[in-house]
Design a protein that fits this description.
Strand content: 15-25%
Shape: elongated
Number of strands: 11
Strand order of the largest sheet: 4-10-9-8-5-6-7-11
Radius of gyration: 23 Å
Largest sheet: 8 strands, mixed
Length: 261
C-alpha cells in the first residue's frame, strides 16, 4: 500500500499539484482547471486514481482531501519546501558550514521559503548589501547577532537606536571590546536608548551574522573551510522570519545583558 501511495504521488506532477491545491481547501473542477492550467479531460483520470487511493473525496461537484490525504500532504509539504530551498541555491548550501545551526532547526530549512543568496561584486565586497540596509531602515523591530566587527555596523545600529525602533543585539566578547575601543560613541548611543538591549556572549556564536526583523530574515554562514566569503541568505517569507527568530533566541539565551561600558 505504501509503495503504491508513493508511486501515486511522486511519479505524477498532476496528482501532486492537485493534492497541494486541495490542501488549501475544497475545489470544483472549474477551479482546478484554472488553478493548475489543465483540461478536465487530462485531470479526471488523476482524480479517479486519487479517489481510489482514498486521498481525496468527492462531495457533489466538489473535491477535497480525505483525512488520510491531509496526513499525507501535510507531511509532503516540509520535504517539498526543503527541495525548493536547496535546489534554488544548491552550490551555496553544499558549501556552507551548517553545524552551528541546531539540528532540529536545520531539518526545518525548508521554512526559509523563497530565499535569495546575495553575492557582492568585487567593487563592493566590503559594503553592506543594499537589500539589507534599505529593509533594515524600514523595520520596526530588529533582532541581530554579530560575531565579527564590520566598520559600518556601529553607526548603522546606533542610528536605529536613536529612533523608535526596538533593537536587540547579541555580540561576542571580541566584537564588544572592539566597539568599546573603536566606536565608543555609537556604543553609548545603544546603551542610552530605552528601546535597545545589548547582550554579550562569552562563547563563539559560530555564525557571522543573524538579523531578523518584522520584514526579513538575513543570515551569514561560514563556508566549510571556516572562511567568510561575504555571501548571505535573505528571505521575506513569514515562515523564514519565525525560523530566524528561533535561531536568534537560541544564541540569545546564552548571552548576558550589559548596560554600560
Amino acid at each position: 500500500m505504501s509503495s503504491s501511495l508513493c508511486d501515486t504521488i511522486w511519479l505524477s506532477e498532476k496528482k501532486k499539484n492537485l493534492l497541494l491545491l486541495l490542501m488549501e481547501g475544497p475545489r470544483n473542477i472549474e477551479q482546478i482547471k484554472t488553478s493548475l492550467n489543465v483540461t478536465a479531460k487530462a485531470m479526471m483520470p488523476q482524480i479517479k486514481i486519487l479517489k481510489k487511493q482514498e486521498l481525496i473525496l468527492q462531495k457533489e461537484d466538489t473535491y477535497e482531501l480525505s483525512e488520510i490525504g491531509k496526513l499525507v500532504v501535510g507531511n509532503m509539504l516540509p520535504l517539498l519546501n526543503t527541495f525548493e530551498v536547496i535546489e534554488e541555491n544548491k552550490e551555496y548550501w553544499a558549501s556552507r558550514d551548517t553545524s552551528m545551526i541546531p539540528m532540529d532547526m536545520f531539518m526545518r530549512l525548508g521554512e526559509l521559503g523563497e530565499c535569495m543568496v546575495i553575492e557582492p561584486d568585487l567593487n563592493h565586497l566590503f559594503d553592506l548589501p543594499r537589500e539589507f540596509t534599505e529593509n533594515l531602515a524600514k523595520s520596526r523591530c530588529i533582532l541581530s547577532s554579530l560575531s565579527y566587527y564590520h566598520p559600518l555596523y556601529p553607526s548603522l545600529y546606533s542610528k536605529l537606536a536613536k529612533s523608535e525602533v526596538e533593537v536587540e543585539l547579541v555580540l561576542t566578547e571580541s566584537v564588544f571590546e572592539r566597539l568599546k575601543h573603536d566606536s565608543p560613541g555609537d556604543l553609548q548611543s545603544l546603551f542610552d536608548s530605552e528601546n535597545t538591549i545589548v547582550a554579550v556572549c562569552e562563547e563563539s556564536l559560530g555564525i557571522p551574522t543573524i538579523a531578523v526583523t518584522d520584514r526579513f530574515m538575513y543570515l551569514c554562514l561560514f563556508d566549510r573551510q571556516g572562511r567568510y566569503d561575504h555571501r548571505k541568505v535573505m528571505s521575506f517569507d513569514e515562515s523564514a522570519l519565525r525560523w530566524g527568530r528561533e535561531l536568534f533566541m537560541h544564541y540569545r539565551k546564552s548571552a548576558r545583558e550589559v548596560t554600560d561600558v
